[in-house]
Amino acid sequence: MALMVVKFDLKKRVKLAQFLWLMYWFSVMAGVLVFSMGLFFKIELRKRSEMMDNNESHFVPNLLIAVGLLACGINAMGGKICYDSLDPIKFSRWKPMLKSFLVSCVAFNCLLVLTALLCFLMRIPLQFTLAEGLKNALKFYKDTDTPGRCYMKRTLDQMQMEFRCCGNNNFRDWFEIQWVSNRYLDFSAKEVKDRIGSNVDGKYLMDAVPFSCCNPSSPRPCIQYQVTNNTAHYSYDHHTEDLNIWKRGCRDALISYYGGMMNTIGALVLLVAILEVIVMIGLQYVNTSLSNLVNPEDPESESEGWILEKTVKETFTDIMDKMKAMSKGNTVEEGGVDGVATVS
Amino acid sequence: MVLMKMKFPFEKRVKLAQCLWLLSWMATLAGAFTFTLGCFLKTELRRRAEVMDNTEIHAVPNTLMIVGLASLGINYFAGRMCQDALDAGRFPRWKTFMQPYWGVSLLFTLLMLTAVIMSYAMKGNLESSLKIGLKNGIRFYKDTDTPGRCFQKQTIDRLQMEFRCCGNTDFKDWFEVQWISNRYLDFSSKEVKDRVKSNVDGRYLFDGVPFSCCNPSSPRPCIQDRLTNNSAHYSYEHQTEELNIYIRGCREALVNYYMGLMNTIGAAVLSVFLVQSSVLVSLRYLQTAMEAVAGQENTEIETEGYLLEKGVKETIMEYVTPVLVFLQLNQVGSEDAEA
Fold first, then answer.
1. Which positions, given as ranges, span the membrane (chain B) (predicted)?
2. ipTM above 0.85, yes or no
3. pTM of the predicted structure, to 2 decimals
4. Rounded CA separation A216/B214 (Å)
5. CA distance to A241, A281, B39, per residue, from A109 (Å)
6. Which pLDDT tens digit goes with each residue over B21-51?
């Protein structure tokens, strides 16, 4: 008993083919969209590559680009098949490869779903990459005279201003590193000597943050230095002060930025996968309806179309048997069992 | 004496009509493009409306939007007319429509040119508007608790960070204004009392700038306070230090930005003006050539087309004389009344 049988007359077949041709063109555009989103994501990752440690993986955007191109190709071919299905002579040329084309469509849909899943899961490795990368970026903030790192200060300042964040986990990360270069420290001053003497590594540490941590929405001018010292500033309590500097850490800010982007891309890829499944089912109907004409000589006769020739369970057992037969090799006993296999 | 006569055999008339039809469609798109340019410019001006004193500069985008919409109508009718021009029987019905049509289309085409000239000429107006607006913005920077002015600080900070500028004319404007609110000044401390007493108005002035003036490209952490005091900072000389804070004033930055925008838009609108003028000239030739055909039995004869029936001076006199007569009549009437 076939799955979801539908009766087709000529008019209905023509309408189905035309509708499917239109849907295939939409799918080609959807493939272009997936490709461009992969490209956009790749560019965004490259823009902030200084904040990530060097082995960040570009696997997901590359996969999106490949899948987008593949979708364009498959859907263009599907559209051509639909266009030719209205002409029996042209369609008979396509008939032999239609089954393998549909099987490859199934595989492609699985790949799409996998891609969407990867998009949602990429957040996790990104978190580790960013944690490591930002830690190093903060360390190299002061090295504006070291070739290769001289733009780290500008990059970090611009990033903190753009993403409204401060430090790695929060603003206290700035207290634990020396972010003022030795070139600008007066080593003959008592204060500098005290601070350097106060820790093992001889670093100039202070409870201050760079200007890029300042929040423009604060009602009072920015307090960057002596942030934890309430008595240093008039009417200031650093425990309750919310608006002075950005509270959020840059890792959280970047994760939510990239996470939002990846969620949107993943959702879109899922929608494209659903569209692909619909056009695949439509193509199967076109295929079966054109192969099962009541009167093979008359192209205008009625026919039946279905998704699967047998029920899902029977088709599945058939496929399993086939795979077992292939793995055991073509023995004479298996040859007898093979004869029961489906021919569509 | 006719202005710029040209002979039009039948094939040339047909070609002219076809060319004009294509040109009128291009001009319609160009008109829509002008409208969007006007909208874009208006949006950009509105975004910074808080640092502008008056909205006189909005005349430029408003004119562009009006001209864009009008040219849609003008070119639509031009297209319809040239479609009818190929049929000698249908063309005469446009006769009564032509006179007001020319008036309106010449007016709006000149208005397009005026918009381009205005966009260059209003630079001074924009600059003075920004000067007053920025002066007020800097004055009210500290008033974050006054309703109506509480967002000035945020606006000025974001402006300075985005346009990479500091102050009105330059960063020294911040030295002349108290930009720290009294709420955050400890009036019991000696330093505050000294500074407040040192000037007539009792303001807390010092040689410091807000954090938004800081330049991220500077190799050293930002020096915001005691800017003119070389000994307050190690290895610092304020006369030669260029990268620490933004040197440029926000007025100059904003004027450059808007003039750049208006120059680009002006160049685009000038090319739209050329397209529109060519549409009108072609339409005039087509109209005069078809008028000569009207009433003839053989519609495929050669005719003459011209721009103006009489010379330029005579045509102007023709239109101005009724206006003068009307004015004189009024004068004579009032004299009679007095007598």
1. 56-79, 100-122, 257-281
2. no
3. 0.82
4. 13
5. 52, 12, 44
6. 999 999 999 999 999 999 999 999 999 999 9
> How many helices and strands, by DSSP H and E, does chain B display?
8, 2
Low-confidence ranges of chain A (pLDDT < 50): 334-344
Report d(CA A302, CA A274) in Å as an integer: 30
Which two structure tokens, joined as six digits, stand for B225? 């306070």
Calculate mean pLDDT across residues B15-23: 90
Contact B222 A211 (CB under 8 A): yes
Return the ∠ at Cα B181 (arms to B177 and B182), rounded to 5°: 110
Rounded Cα–Cα distance for residues A22 and B265 (Å): 40
Q: Which of B154, B185, B221 sits opposite A210 (nearest CB)?
A: B221
| SS3 assignment, position A54 | coil
| Structure tokens, B85 | 């021009």
Q: Please name the member of B210, B218, B234 whose beta carbon is closest to the beta carbon of A221.
A: B210
Q: Which residues contact A249 (CB under 8 A, 6 or more apart)?
A: A165, A166, A167, A168, A169, A170, A171, A173
Residue A293 three-state SS: strand
Closest CA to B73 of B39, B43, B28: B28
Q: Which residues contact A260 (CB under 8 A, 6 or more apart)?
A: none
CB B171 within 8 A of CB B164: no
Would you state the structure tokens that stand for residue B186, as one six-digit string? 């400890």
pLDDT given for residue A330 in this prediction? 60
The alpha carbon of residue A169 is apart from the nearest alpha carbon of chain B, in Å, by 21
Place of tokens 């943050």: A209
Of A154, A161, A235, the CB nearest to B183: A235
Q: How does the average pLDDT of chain B come out, rounded?
A: 89
Q: Do B161 and A157 touch (CB under 8 A)?
A: no
For residue A23, the model assigns a pLDDT of 94
Contacts of B217 in chain A (CB under 8 A): 154
Nearest CA in chain A to B186: A234
Q: What is the mean pLDDT of chain A?
A: 88
Q: Which residues pair with B245 in a beta bridge?
A: B214
How far away is chain B from the Cα of A158, in angstroms, using its nearest Cα?
7
What is chain A's length?
344
Sequence-distant (≥ 6) Cβ neighbours of residue A170 within 8 angstroms:
A247, A248, A249
Nearest residue of chain B to residue A155 (CA atoms)? B216
B174-178 LR contacts (CB < 8 Å, sep 24+): B174/B138, B174/B208, B174/B209, B174/B210, B174/B213, B175/B205, B175/B206, B175/B207, B175/B208, B176/B205, B177/B138, B177/B139, B177/B141, B177/B203, B177/B205, B178/B142, B178/B203, B178/B204, B178/B205
Which of B142, B155, B184, B196 best probes binding to A when mutated, by most A CB atoms within 10 angstroms? B184
Do A150 and B219 count as a contact with CB atoms less than 8 A apart? Answer: yes
Query: What span, in angstroms and rounded, lies between the C-alpha atoms of A98 and A289?
Result: 13
Tell me the residue ranges of DSSP E strands in A179-315.
303-305
The token pair at B323 is 């206006």
Over residues B122-180, the pLDDT tens digits come to 999 999 999 999 999 999 999 999 998 889 999 999 999 999 999 999 999 999 999 99
pLDDT of residue A193: 92
pLDDT score at A339: 46
Share of chain B above pLDDT 90, in %: 62
CA distance B213 to A157: 13
**H/E run at residue A88:** helix A88-121
